[in-house]
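Bug #77: duplicate submission created two jobs. Keeping one. Sequence:
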Amino acid sequence: MRKVTVAGAQLGPIQRDEPRAEVVTRMLILMDEAKQAGADLIVFPELALTTFFPRWYMEDSAEIDSWFEREMPNAVTRPLFERAARHGMGMYLGYAELTPDGHHFNSSIIADRTGAIVGMYRKVHLPGHAEFDPERAFQHLEKRYFEPGDLGFPVWRTMDGIFGMCICNDRRWPETYRVMGLQGVEMVLLGYNTPSVNSQNSAEGPERRLFHNRLSVQAGAYQNSTWVVAVAKAGIEDGFPMIGGSLIVNPEGRIMVEAKTEADELIVHACDLDATLFGKRTIFDFARHRRIEHYGLICSQTGAIPPAP
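Kept job's structure:
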């Protein structure tokens, strides 16, 4: 049995004027709680260090860049890595990345139990828009501030397992899980910031959004026989509500634990990575079940797209 006790560290809202250092203090408290709970790995949300700034329209490049981290770790975030190393605990952390050559990504990293970064992911499926629309109450401007990720969906062998990463909207795409599944992934770590109401469909409120969150994560876990740890930043942030619903799902697609609040909250579960093996030998046996000759539309970049009704 290869058991990894995982702590999903849901964060409540981070207001626009809340300094990163205060956020890090909140995260360190959750880290200490995770240590007390026997966690080997802690998972923080997408853009864990700041408010979800893509809801704001900005033109000044200096203002935009102020939301990004130019290095990781840096002076503000180094205590997270030091605390993780002291606790012997791995860490997933989502943040806005500004590269030395000026590229902007919505990124996440995995650090191992020594606090060393062993993997990086950059969000591929960017939702929202690039320009301000006065008709929308909630602006989702990720396409304005981020470039699509350029690293694909790799996996990393660390902490005695095979780990992958994705971020928020990525979880709604079955290809996200499948690409990592083909590489033998045993645990997918993902952070998200999801508004409680769909800005393009006001009928889609928090209950439906939580349902779709569970559906996407459970399907990805079951269809690829992998653990999935999905962790939110939640609550009313800058006047805008976001869903919580952080959860840990087993390789059968069953929810093992789910957050009950929209505040800072820790969910913990002991995950047996060997529990992925049965599904990988049966329903996920690619040697017997794959029929690539029938997958033309999804294997070709020029596949036909049905016309809108």
